[in-house]
Give the backbone structure.
Amino acid sequence: MSLPKLRQYHAAVWDEPIVMEMGRAGRRGMVFPTSDAEVSAADGTLDTVIPASARRQHPPKLPELSEFEVQRHYLHLAQETLGMMGISLFGTCTMKYNPRVSELVAARPWLAELHPNQSEETLQGVLEIVHGMNQILCELSGMAQFVFQPGGGADAAYTHACITRAYHEHRGELAQRNEIITTIQAHPCNAATAAAAGFNVVTLPLEEAGYPSVAALEAALSDRTAALMVNNPDDMGIYNPNIKRWVELVHQAGGLAFYDHANFNGVMSRLRARELGFDACMFMLHKTFGAPKGGGGPAVGAYGCSEDLVAFLPRPLVRQVGGRYTIEHEAPLSVGRVREFWGNIPQVVKAYAWTRAMGSDGLRQAADISVLANNYMERRLLAIPGVSKSFPELSSPRLEMTRYSLAKVAEDTGVTVLDIQNRMVDFGVDAFWLSHEPWIVPEPFTPEAGELWSKEDIDYWIDVLATVIDEAYNDPDTVRSAPHCQAIHKVDGAGADDPQRWATTWRAYQYKHSIQVTS
Amino acid sequence: MRSSPSHGKQPTSSPRTYFELMVKAGAARPRLGIIVNPLAGIGGPAALKGSDGAATVAEARARGARPEAPLRAERTLQALAARVGPAELLAAPGAMGADLARRVGFSVKATSRSAPSETSALDTRVAATAMRDADVGLLLFAGGDGTARDIHDAIGDQLPLLGIPAGVKMHSGVFAHSPEAAARAAEAALRNGPSLPLRGADIADVDEQAARDGRVASILYGSVRVPDLPRLVLPTKAGSPAQPGAELQALCREIADTLEPSCLYLFGPGSTTAMVLAALGARGTLLGVDAVLDGQVVGKDLTESQTLALLDTHLDSRLVVGLVGGQGMLFGRGNRQLTAAVLSRVGADRITVLSAADKLLALTPPTLWVDTGDPVLDKHLSGYIRVRVGPRQQIIMTVSS
Amino acid sequence: MANSAPALREELCAAVGVSDPEELFAQIPLDHRAARPVVLPPALASEVELSRHLRDTLGRNVDCEAVLSFLGGGCWQHHVPAVCDELATRTEFLTPVWGTPASDHGRNQAWFEFSSQLGELLDLDFVGLPVYSWGCAAGHAVRMAARITGRDQILISEFMDHERLAVMRTYCEPPGMRGHIELRSVPTNPATGTIAVDELAAALSDRTAAVYLETPSGLGVIEPDPGQIARLAHSHGAELIAGVDPTSLGLLAPPGQYGADIAVGPTQPLGVHMNCGGGVGGFIASRDEERYARAYPTLQVSLCPTSKQGEHGFALTLFQQSSYGSRELGNDWTGNSVYLWAVVNAAYMALLGPAGFAELGELILARSRYAATRLAEVPGVSVRWPWFFKEFVLDFNETGRTVAEINVALRERGIFGGGDLSLSHPQLGQAALYCVTEVHTQHDIDRLVTALTEVLA
Ligand SMILES: Cc1ncc(COP(=O)(O)O)c(C=O)c1O
């Protein structure tokens, strides 16, 4: 196989000290006005207004730096972060361009300096946008109302678990309905939030068709069933064609059906959760809807539900009354709050902007392109020796992503999928998604092209993978010891779970590793 | 069904760590030992169903087979050397490890000086005993189920064990999934020393009877401890769980705490049910069926007729079983004492199945098998069952005959 | 969309072997397809139109820089250093998700510096990556305490911030569920608003998993001797969870100093705009002991070596106990959180340093006390409790007016009055929570006093 020429990439290496090691005593980055004479004289000395037992005894050992040093230090750290500067096909996260215009608009005081408890008439602009986004999501899902309070997809799953509690409590069945059903391919947050909300978790494994059978679901359903929580398509790109039947069965058993729509990108505008029968669904504004990911939030898990469940939604909700927007702060059956205030509103504004820019046709095109790009990738990836696909016998095209396996490469060469990932970053290609726990497919990887990445980017990504797999066979040590062109070398995490060695703070590191401070 | 290495994860009743061993040993000791069964795996390519016994080996050689195990052990040692450099190693003599380890660059102490030219199961046992006496922190071996059994026969569960997959049959839960994965585990053993987390795993081997009937199934021989190192996940290295198998332990404790009064509980073989008994303050029979009534053990290592006799006098009964071996066998292997007669008397709806979650999830397809010898009962037991994997967690599995 | 160029799209279709992408959706049964097409408002495809639309709409807001605001209560107007704003919009930090330990190195280091500096402020050694909010942090912390102690009751003050308490309640499972945790409120001293220690001692029992003590509290009150409460809790085998505002920690005792076991609090004051409530975040910290570390639901980064001698890298620690690692068998759950703010928070703490935090604390204290003293001079208005930081309760009961009316009148004068407590804390009657920070000048405060005097005249 002749391999294409790849970029000569090297990450910035700043060998940047930990901020705790930097600076000099007495140096200042930020000063505050000394309080005006009258202010200080208001009522006596510190000692009379704060009891001594409530006062700090030793100043915190924070670094002492100039403003420029702080700025430069964190810009160095920015440069030592690859992210979207390279190519990131991180599956399940739907990497998107986050338009700068939204950043500029959202950074202005008219949004940044709003307090959520201002009176409604001072918030009409932002309320209009929140309400507008609500309507857009209702149109896309068929649901009756969305709430933006959940701080991420997992928090929206938690919201569903809370609403499930409130719903069955209201019907007097909570004591009996204590089971939430999910599948092993559902995102871990579904099972985890169900358990955290107090439910027992019943998990359905996959069967030959790539999803659990209707019969398995039937075996799980009973008068103890409180809810079903699933995503579809799953992150192997497999769509469960019985999902409508599933929802019917769950309803017959008296449970609620929740659709984790994190993988919405491939089915945008092709189906509606409510039309499939679901009682509630969740959209990730930080994935599908173009709001930035922030390297892990602030995020929004927009949670929507049918008319029947609106009473239970967390508050506040934004309502339109005549030409005005109002805030409904409380409701008798509401679950209360899953997080303070009404959500990561700047992300809602950015998602609104993205969706308005796309329009109905744009969304459909984006879904088409993301599925097309994924299938294009699949053709090329499966041509690389050593790459295989999950459930290879299923011939239908996958939706917006496909799960692959490098088991053969690992078996032949001992080079693991993690080694390969560590080597790919040497070419400016950031990590791929492997798989949720548990790994059903050995040595898994799950790239997602979405509608963002150009064919050139996708081809380059595949070329890098092919090159690294070729290296695994011919020069495995180079792959195993990778990375070689990165900000740092291969991290040895062997001590990260050892209480004697882990260190989540500099002070813990110092006493565990007895390193002298230089300051 | 495919015979594949089992990665079944199963905590021991009392999670022991190196720390206890250190206290026992009281002195510095080599952290790693290695035994290579140079003949392991030789039968595989030759389409023989194993490599145990001199006759099989001769036959394999006659068919032109080359030993696989040394190559695989070398891969592990190479990978280990790349990770940790020239560490100290206790090795079985000659072709059983020492030669290889020296060639790769380890500083090697051999368990004995003389190396047999033609090795046998006895040599494995002798080397294992020497490893036990030296109290190594982890005993690596290259082989298959036969080798694992030989080691287990010699030293029981006295040393943490890890298999470099090199056999024809690997039903036991002690094998790393690749030679390199074994190196990673060995590295963790070297680095973590006393704090290397351990968990229980089964020693199993093929059921010859079933094999002659053309089926693949395994028999449970015992239980040992292996490093508990979950796979590397996400962008960085994940470590060991807070408490290995904590959920399963909590479940076993809960079952022990909530036994119904005047109900006769039968506990099937295996280390999972042994945890329930341990929570009751009793010591279970690892390979046998035990009975408990109102918190008291009323029968140990019961035969079918003893069980039936107990069931005669106790109409209210329940059966609690774990899954033995790596094949997802629910009834018919490893627990043949639980005959069709016993199961019918207890009743299908009074059976509780316990398992560690990942042991179930390693089964593809997600099916448990029953082979009670009574086709009508087998059919009755078939369908879907809930397997309890934690106090608040269940997994739905298919049951098939 | 780079691949929407018609010729390229054709090329991709050809490579895949379809004439239309529609064929690739064969997995979705026809009766699952949308019953009617999606109709959204007309697209604003150009940046010109979009930006105009957003500006026109958001321009209708009245923000806290345009007027004078005294709103607080879980979201506070602080000065945001310009460097923090720059970092919050740096594409490298703003747009990615996960990479490898090497390609994410810079961000991981910033996260570690978040935890390290917060650890110094709190005087604690183990700090997780942030969670969604203070209320969520407190909710996780009480669950941690319940897991650690095997007990099911938490003692809290009768005066909690209403939003935060509502969040904590959803984390505690309703009564009757297996994991229900009871939040039992303890009376306060009427004169000070601080926890009534005798009542606390009486309430502590072998059911108590933890005392959750906020200082300053949701109503701004400083506890005079948190150490005494820690000792009391410990003497009953309970944990002390401290809730603290990091802007107070240059001045007030850090949780580690008085023996708190777990500390939680907000991250928004550390360089993040209010963002209409979308700036909130929460932290969880504790002593570095396995007892606590193994109960965390969060992810956290640990300093680790690399294959190069002397080089630092970072790896996730205790990943396996998170929901990513162990699904429902993990501790609570985790997911996307507010990690971008952690980078901003790190820069904020580095900018301030020890002297900056001392100055900030003193300034906020001085100005909030000045405001309280002046406002108490307004006829009919009194300050409820004597020890406070940043926020204080103004009692309007004597004025015969409702807070709602007063706030309307203040708004007409370009002032957002303090948060109305009359609904959330009816025991206080007509009372409001006023927040004064370093952004409020003496002139601002005097303006408020004048306006309020007018309104109440
Ligand atoms: C299918 C699915 N559901 C839920 C989540 C959780 O979302 P978040 O990380 O925003 O909490 C994810 C994120 O990866 C996901 O892929």
